[in-house]
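Consider the following assembly input.
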Amino acid sequence: MTGSLARYAKNPAALLGLVLLLAVIAMALLAPILFPKDPLSLAGRPLQWPDLGGRFPLGTDNSGRDIAAQIFHGAQVSLLIGLVATTISIAIGIVVGALAGFYGGWIDDALMRVTEAFQTLPNFLLLLVLVAVFGSDITTVTVAIGLVSWPATARLTRAEFLTLRNREFVQACRVLGMGDLRIIFREILPNALPPVIVYASVVMAIAILLESALAFLSLSDPNIASWGNLIGAGRNVLRVQWYVSAIPGVAILLTVLAVSLVGQGLNDALNPRLRRNPKP
Amino acid sequence: MTILSLALRRLAASLPTLVIILAGLFLLLQLAPGDTVDALMAQMGGGDPALAEELRRFYGLDISALAQLGRYLLRLVQFDLGQSAIYGKPVAQVIAERLPVTLLLMGSSLSLAFAAGTALGILAARQLDRWPDTLISTLGLIFYATPSFWFGLMGIVLFSITLGWLPSGGFEEVGAGLTGLDRALDIAWHLVLPTVTLALIFLATYLRIMRASMLEVMSLDFVRTARAKGLAETGVVVRHALRNAMLPMVTLIGLQAGTMLGGSVVVESVFALPGLGRLAYESVVQRDLNTLLGIVFVSALLVIVINFLVDLLYGQLDPRIGAGR
């Protein structure tokens, strides 16, 4: 494990990602302290240009709301949606993949058919359908994002289980008379987990992007300070006050970049033999 | 083995997937609070229950969910997608009007992402760990992390508003009365920004895969043989390595077909293009569930067809993989 840590620390891109991610987390934690007022309340004259020394360092949007406050509170929203949706999606993916890989046979066939169905559907379209049916408050949106993004995790977990299920330690567990569920979740799963955890960073990046796209189309919760909502609002004044849309976009970009870099760094640190640059 | 029978076999194999999708979605839509009739009544500004009853009978909403599902699947087999409540036309017709725009957008974005991704991936792999590689890989990461709609908006700010080079939206100049080549050029003109916007996201993935694939292939024995028999480096890369390195790229087309359709929903909304994605968005907002279901069905079919084409292409690239199997 120390070896992995050292490898991670030697990777500049991974360190940059970690610093960015910590910065976004710090923004989310500092939001209630720096901007105690509701970020969606009227703060001043609408459409003031960013003025780093002034009262509104990032300006105000078309409804006179402080953009800096929305960016900080938006960090909370993005991280929270990203984390919860990723947890949901990984949990579904692990259960489906584990059962399919462990039991094989008709259980595998049935579960993989369903996985295939989910993969054939464009996930953003499915997300639209879910939002159309269940409404668009923040809980629903988060769960819906988790529901549409599990198939890749399921396939990954299944592949791991297929290689592990006939190993000797599993046979030993059987001989000891352990139940299936205990073998699956207590014995095999910990061995199958590392690649899945690395993949979670990809899921989280996609989850953050999905929510922002939904918010941009004003199909997400309008009552929260989401970065996507702000970009959507800024679209109406794009011609002159383009900064209203530009600033939250940069915030999304940096957050997703941070998550991807950390994920890639973890991958390189955990699988040193699979370094992407095999030097001749 | 002719292509036609192969296609039929593939379609038969994907039939269970299609049925799962349709049944799942149909039952899901039953959970929606309010149906098409409620939406219609709201649009008309209310009405009496007798009228609602009449309309429900007209749209076939007065029977049980399971019976509706059976009826729906039966009609699907005849390619009858039902009536769009909002547009007052058959769903199939509404979709057919919108589909070409989306196909054009997807096709051009895919070509751009594929071509640019291949070129940049090769360049990065040839310049491994030198500055072009670092630059290309960094740009790839940034493109991957950027929300497409934001890219589009910033493109509009820069190229339409500030520089005035490109139109900010729409499919063609309405009312200009252009025909033939002029019209085609006008449409291409309008599609530049949307195409680049949609392509940039996928470019990142293609470029990364191409780079990795190229690095792997270039380390194989047959490349050394090609070099040993005195071929020039360009010949080695283009004639020998490229064809083998392409295989994962082709796989990616199939894997990303669905994501690309999803991406076009957002991009079409940004640029006000009258495509399938925008139709999906409109039908969500207006609760036209029949149309939404039709779009999902057509999208799923499209993804299956694209994957079939990818398999054919795969067999062409690598004769060891017989498409018939």
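Residues 180-218 of chain B form the longest helix (39 residues). Ask yourself how this observation constrains the way the partners meet.
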